[in-house]
Amino acid sequence: MLSLPLIASALIIGLLGAGHCIGMCGGLMGALTMAIPPEHKAQRFKLLLGYNLGRVSSYGIAGVLFGLGGWALQNSPLALGLRIFAALLLIAMGLYLAGWWFGLNRLERAGQHLWRYIQPLTKRLLPVTSLPKAILLGALWGWLPCGLVYSTLIWSASQGNALHSGLLMVLFGLGTWPVLIISGLAAEQLKQFLQRQAVRIFSGLLLILFGLWTLPGPHQMWLMGH
């Protein structure tokens, strides 16, 4: 069973990544909203929920798949290496959010190879006229290359339990819901707030601290005490 700190951590990572989500997916959410035919505008909120439900479902599936790898490594010397790698990715994501280092872009570019095969499928679902189509489109959208998702995916897999990894990814996805749904409804004031440098630096610093806490070592006790 997942512990409360892990549950809170997954949700918080999703919330802290809101600024990155606006940059990566906010425009896509707006485009998907604009793609809703005029006669279906009244269903906009329902379709937005469908997009995000499909997206989070993909995160959960990816979490289980990667979690199987983490489970296989759980009792091997590589398990420690996976945890260290997950922590370093979270730190890199924090630096990215704060605007101090953009090396994580290379990881996102690596994911473009898979996206090339998935992207053509999304065009077949437009325009979105029903909830099932919205969910399916969201499920495809969940595989969009994203450094924040990759970082969280490796972190969840480092728990050594496939089911827990999948659940953590679902919780992470739920943490991103408020911002992306509001973004899809064109709440410009919230988007501008999340894009402020001070907000991005604050979010980045918290993610860096979380990455440091994830790194194995005696410093964990000190961080927990403070």
From TrEMBL:
Keywords: Membrane, Transmembrane, Transmembrane helix. Residues 10-213 form the Urease accessory protein UreH-like transmembrane domain. The chain crosses the membrane at residues 6-35, 56-74, 80-104, 164-186, 198-216. InterPro entries: UreH-like_TM_dom. The keyword Membrane applies. This is Cytochrome biogenesis protein. The lineage of its organism: Bacteria, Pseudomonadati, Pseudomonadota, Gammaproteobacteria, Pseudomonadales.
